[in-house]
Amino acid sequence: MACPHPFHAAGGPAAAASFGNDGDWTDLLEQMTDTGGDSVLFGIRHHSPACARAVVQAAEHLCPRAVAVEMPSDLADYVTWLVHPDTRAPVAVAAATDGGAGGFYPFADFSPELAICRWAHANRVPVEFIDLPVGLRHAVDTDPDASAASTDAGKQSTSCAAAGFSSLIGQEAWDTSVEAPSVGCTWQQIRRAALAVGIAARYAETHDGTPADAVTRAREAWMARRLQQLTGTSATPSSAGPVLVVVGAYHCAALVPGGCGDTAPGREEELFSLVPQPVTVSVVRYSFERLDTRSGYASGIRDPHYHQELLTRIAAAGDDQKAQAAAAQEVAGDILTDIARGLRKEGEPAGTGEVAEAFRFARDLAQLRGLPAPGRREILDAATTVMAQSQVTGRGRLVARAVAAAMAGDRVGDLPADCPVAELQKHTRGQLAALSLPSTEQQPRASKKIAPFSGPTDLKRHLILARLKALDVPYWEGGSGTTRGMDNRSYTIDCRFTPMTAAELDRHAAAGVTLEQAADTVLVSRLNRAAGSPEGPDPEVVTGIVDRAAACAAPQALSQAIDLLEQEIAVQLGFRAAVSAMQVLAGIAGGRQPAAACLPEQLLQRCDRMVDELARTVVGAIDGVKGSAKIADARLLGTLAGLSGRLGLAVGHALADVIATGSALMAGAACAVDSLLEERDAPAFEDRADTTGTGSPSGTGAGGHGVQTGRWDALCTRTGALVDRLAVAETRVAARDWLTGFLAALGPVWSDHPGLDGLIARVSGISDGAFIAALPGLRAVFDTVAPGERERFLDRLAQDIGRIDQPEIAPEILIATATADQEAKKRLEALGLLDLSFDPSTRWRLVLGADPEQLSGTGWQMAETLDELYGGTGDDRTGEAQGRVRAAGSGPGSLAVRRWKNQIEVLFGPDRVDDILGVAAERGRADAALELNAETARPSVGLLTTLLNLKGALPESTVARIRPLIARVVDELARALATTMRPALTGIGSARRSLRPAGRLDLPATIRKNLSHVVSIDGRVQIVPVNPVFCTPVKQSSEWHIIVAVDVSGSMEASTVYAAMTAAILSAVDCLRVELFTFDTDIIDMTGTVDDPLATLLEIKVGGGTDIAKAMAYALSRVTVPAKTMVVLVTDFEESGSAHRLVGTIREMTERGITTIGCAALDDTGLAAHNAGVAQLCAGAGMHTASLSPLALGRWIAQVVNR
User: Fold this and answer.
1) 1003 is in which domain, residue-wise?
2) What is the Cα–Cα distance from 277 to 929, expressed in whole angstroms?
3) pLDDT category, 980, cuts 50, 70, 90?
4) Among the listed ranges 15-19, 370-374, 1158-1162, which one has the minimum average pLDDT value?
5) Is there a single domain that holds both residue 918 and residue 1027?
């Protein structure tokens, strides 16, 4: 059986045209395939079962006196461990120099180099490694465009892909030209086909066949010189046999006389005159999982388990062609069976019938292609066609996962017991010892202060610790910490070398021989896994890799992560992810990352340019969070003040929009950022809309104070007015949220911000009654900031209103003062002036939760009552607190709930009981929810979500006690929403206007029709309905199908409530057929309870991830009449699945005529927070996207149905 024509099979007409004609090809190929000289070339591809089998057959036929292999010559001593009887492939050789050059060489049983080395060892034939030493890589002037050629001595130059001929030398072309036809072929036929592929690839790169990059040219010059040394100048074979040269097929043309190597004179002499640097080498265990190209290793091979099985069974079949073909067919059948088994594990039907049909398809396809047996390509085509039914998404993705599991395999290599310890561990121990850090298990735990900016030693310590962290090696604890919100330039760690440290280093031994190399390799691998995820790359994962790569000074990983960020992720980033990525990259470009000093300048410039690109994304994404109710978003908005130099003038307009139209929380945050940026003058503050109802600031500092003074006066007036708003029930929540956002955005500097002067003055000046009413809200506001920051605020208050610490006073003086206070209290009570009993220091102790032991009487009782909700040991994220302030708490209280309820009622009034208990319930106190009054509790979405969250954490007997309250809240909210929405839905597709008396009168249409018939009767203008208009019922030929998909991930609580009630209202419209389903990463159909919002909400469990693409695919499967179908997607567009798959599904819906609308969450304000980047991608695919209230959604549905 003969292989296909080597020229056209390998390169085709295009490749031949680059070289000349078939005659030219034949001349060079005949020269290369000649076996009569003193050396015989055998061109291979790294990891080729056909070549691994054929090269051993060639050696047995030729009986060479020596074998020359394309491996760095300074690794020759380690061939002993590769061919050791106890070595079980896959294994790998990792090498690196102190200068950073290195290489990584994995081997499997089907690697031709390993196969020929094993044969040579068994037959006592010397093996020579003839490639450029790793220790000389530093001497090569690497072409900037040859990306990773200097760090990977893979058998094909990495510049090949950059030059555009990877399609000729890549695995798919190699499978087609060499592997698949090789079954039953002789070693001569396989060798000839492989050499033809090498020639075609070489001349497809450059016209004269000279490699484009410097590393490949240097390697080929070195190999030619070494080969000349081995063979001498004789053209006749030695009596002891030829030298068998096993090198990449691409390089063979450079190793024949008159070939196409580097003709630069003296290049090899220059290289041979240099002394190689010392090389650290390690032989490590490897695995098929890592060898598979899906792991990100570019020089690996796709589906190694399949190639292993093929090599093993064909070798067992011997030289008989029919037996080899039968063995290959047997492998195909077993692989297809394994794929079906994997599908069944995924819950997909795939049985004997599918396997038999897929096998028949693969066998017939092989016959049509002239192949002796199905190859890898035929197996994949059969699985795609028969098992996936050619689907790219859905079942197609499940088949892809099953194929990967069946064909990649999970085999792990092993090494002899006496193999040297992995060099990674030895290198790491040496580096730690040199830096005076614990390097052995016997050394005690050490505490070290690391100041990476202070000098090279601490910078090296910082780098080695960062690299250990990147590899998840347990060695040290601690961190940089912050001071007033700024990262410290030094930090203290506790470190110790433990057996777990050694074990984890050994686990990563296959990644490299130095920590630098291993960290870079592992980060690149993680990045490639993220990029190859079926759901698409996760922005948080990629941003995290950028941060870690910069901390480790890992340029390859950082460069590839920035590529991925720029090409695939930036367009779908939401506000949170975009700001996070911008902060990380700005820290690298600005030198705040210590390891940035070790990165190439070109890479730092890329980071700087990427910051500018992300700045535009950030400004555009601000609109997506302006309706947010999350303090984290307010804090994140505050970070823009530090990035203002990159954001440009556009950020000012975006902040103005948030102040005018955003939620109270985000409006306060935007106002804080605005004040920090100092981009607006005082009148701008006054003219903006007051979303909290605080009233416009009244003072602008006129009278010579200037614009800056006027700005602060206006801001102080606003913050002071908010204290009064906190005392009023109608404005309490908005005022609290505004102040919370204001403090959150200011960050650690809030305690010194002059805008709080008005609040300080107002807290000190209002009456006791107003202060008590405002106190719970004030405590809630300051509860959101760290205890250490509140302590700094106490220091500021000491300057503004005097010391509030308890003074050291003699007991007899205190007794006399207390007696005088009691007498004064009686007189003030008689005069009606008892308001003055709460002095400023007492008020601020209550507001800040400070020094409760210094309070007495009513003040102490109020502090105890509020501490039950807000006090606790807490978590000081700054590490700066001294214990003077109680931190926020979320655990069980110290008071019995009924006693606490009574204290709230006595101290703050009956109207505050439900408010405070409701907040306690939100913080997880179920006993507080049980005390809420079902008759008097104020219905709200916040209360309802709190109660619904508790139902999963309480026994059914306890839940039964709050069901009446849940039912009442749902009923009242639904009734109020229906009152708002039903007018917008009136008349949807249910009637047409007619002058014929029938049905009911259409009053608006009648008035418009008869405006010409106006008369005056008794002085009153009246319309005479000469032509009344009636609504005639219309029988629907087909009703509209409304599919409501509701995201129930953790961020969608309020929207879930509104969506359930909206769906119930829509289901009451006669001409609408409504389906409702919820989704996170799973889908639950709720259509059965769509008309009962209470039943729906009691069944919904909020929490989990988000797979919007999966939900839209399910919605598409429910469509029967596309032109009469509307899909309403309620989500915040925070997609954790594949954004590309989501966009593709929406585009398919649009093309089929389905109406789609994406509600960027759904609430009564129409300002819900969402990912603006993903929403814009969906809008580009044809979906109408907007932040909507239920009323606006109802109007939109009515317009679509009636158009």
Assistant:
1) 991-1033
2) 72
3) low
4) 15-19
5) no
